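request received
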Amino acid sequence: DGGITQSPKYLFRKEGQNVTLSCEQNLNHDAMYWYRQDPGQGLRLIYYSQIVNDFQKGDIAEGYSVSREKKESFPLTVTSAQKNPTAFYLCASSIAYGELFFGEGSRLTVL
Amino acid sequence: AQRVTQPEKLLSVFKGAPVELKCNYSYSGSPELFWYVQYSRQRLQLLLRHISRESIKGFTADLNKGETSFHLKKPFAQEEDSAMYYCALSSNAGGTSYGKLTFGQGTILTVHP
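response:
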């Protein structure tokens, strides 16, 4: 089944802990993205990567980190420095200009 | 800075009625505009893009550069159109922006029987 796979779907974190959200794609897309979705705010770009071993900050990168060691994988780490991490996180990939393919999302809750 | 505004958080219509979801943008360059849709229990997916000038599921959207708008329209709404709709803008910075989209806040459309 081709597409974007995000895991876990639900994640709980204690304050002060780092957590890593996984994103894998088998679409052979060059570019991958992480968006954060909050009620009433739409989707905001955290990080994106257009090629392996390279990534760029988006609009709200503070408190997050990523890596792109493989074309298929783009994990997102939510660090303890992120002041308001409770949110729904969406990973996406693209090959054609402007068309994003999204995963099902991961919901992170800080306890 | 680029910005996308969807002024309506919620929009309700009856089946068969026309529907228009509003989208306004601010961007100094030449924008590329898109509409994405998320149906219940499904992934967010592309509905249409202005550059292709196509009609998808009866929806159309015209880019109005004078009014900086990209409203989504359908003459006769169906119950299956109920979903969350996002307008999105991509800056064409030398063709390197790929899918670096700026999204609006989203509009939840409910079509009543």
